TrEMBL record:
<dbReference type="InterPro" id="IPR001468">
    <property type="entry name" value="Indole-3-GlycerolPSynthase_CS"/>
</dbReference>
<keyword id="KW-0210">Decarboxylase</keyword>
<feature type="domain" description="Indole-3-glycerol phosphate synthase">
    <location>
        <begin position="4"/>
        <end position="253"/>
    </location>
</feature>
<dbReference type="Pfam" id="PF00218">
    <property type="entry name" value="IGPS"/>
</dbReference>
<dbReference type="InterPro" id="IPR045186">
    <property type="entry name" value="Indole-3-glycerol_P_synth"/>
</dbReference>
<comment type="similarity">
    <text>Belongs to the TrpC family.</text>
</comment>
<dbReference type="InterPro" id="IPR013785">
    <property type="entry name" value="Aldolase_TIM"/>
</dbReference>
<keyword id="KW-0822">Tryptophan biosynthesis</keyword>
<protein>
    <recommendedName>
        <fullName>Indole-3-glycerol phosphate synthase</fullName>
        <ecNumber>4.1.1.48</ecNumber>
    </recommendedName>
</protein>
<dbReference type="InterPro" id="IPR011060">
    <property type="entry name" value="RibuloseP-bd_barrel"/>
</dbReference>
<keyword id="KW-0057">Aromatic amino acid biosynthesis</keyword>
<keyword id="KW-0028">Amino-acid biosynthesis</keyword>
<keyword id="KW-0456">Lyase</keyword>
<dbReference type="InterPro" id="IPR013798">
    <property type="entry name" value="Indole-3-glycerol_P_synth_dom"/>
</dbReference>
<dbReference type="GO" id="GO:0004425">
    <property type="term" value="F:indole-3-glycerol-phosphate synthase activity"/>
</dbReference>
<comment type="pathway">
    <text>Amino-acid biosynthesis; L-tryptophan biosynthesis; L-tryptophan from chorismate: step 4/5.</text>
</comment>
Amino acid sequence: MNILDQIVAHKQKEVAERKSLYPVKLLEKSIYFESQPVSLKKYLLRPDKVGIIAEFKRKSPSKGMINPYVAVERTSVGYMQAGASALSILTDTAFFGGKNEDLITARKFNFCPILRKDFTIDEYQIIEAKSIGADAILLIAAILSPEQIRSLAAVAKSLKMEVLLEVHDQQELERSLTPDVDALGVNNRNLKDFTVDINLSKTLAPIIPDDFVKVSESGISEAETVADLATYGYKGFLMGETFMKNSRPEKACAAFIDRLRVLI
Ligand SMILES: O=C(O)c1ccccc1NCC(=O)[C@H](O)[C@H](O)COP(=O)(O)O
């Protein structure tokens, strides 16, 4: 089993358990069902921002432990003060060391789009994402059929949430597009063998229809790379490890954005 298969197998069990512990009726009592989400798409298109989606990620299958010590309050507020456009909060515990409470905390301290970064395979998880204050969810084409993508994206839309659809190749892109998707993420990291190839974002850019905001994900460590990808039409740049490997991720984010502003 590759890592994605392992994550999905674990997620199926986790979702079944959570459904019985926290039924949908209970989740729907959350105050976030009454509030208007913040649009990720709009924030990525804002001319005063540089499109960084700054990620809070303690560990990952490819890198192991990255940073178990920093607090989500200080890091998330610092990311936004640094000039990030949005937050990506990992909520998967088993493989990424995250938790729903991280997103709940980030939500309390920030008014900005928050992407719930998890492995969504069931509509229950979208209702859960809404209940903890997320504005957008991630759908990964590699673990979902085109029908699942369409129906999960429609559920997100019915809850007024936005969808970032992640693809890794042309086939995934062509079979997965649906109008309920808002942003199209090209993951430069092959999630089966963890190799990173930034050129993948450049290769796929011309075949991403203009209706979708283009996001380049993973393996970005240089401001020059972002400036280069921007010339291919990318408006969003999902970055985790480059910031999180520092004792003060928000300071690394601020320094990165300062460098970027000189280039674009
Ligand atoms: O990062 C991993 O090891 C990984 C393994 C399996 C599935 C997903 C994985 N990562 C999720 C991501 O897509 C990244 O956290 C995100 O794009 C940020 O990447 P980076 O800037 O390289 O931390």
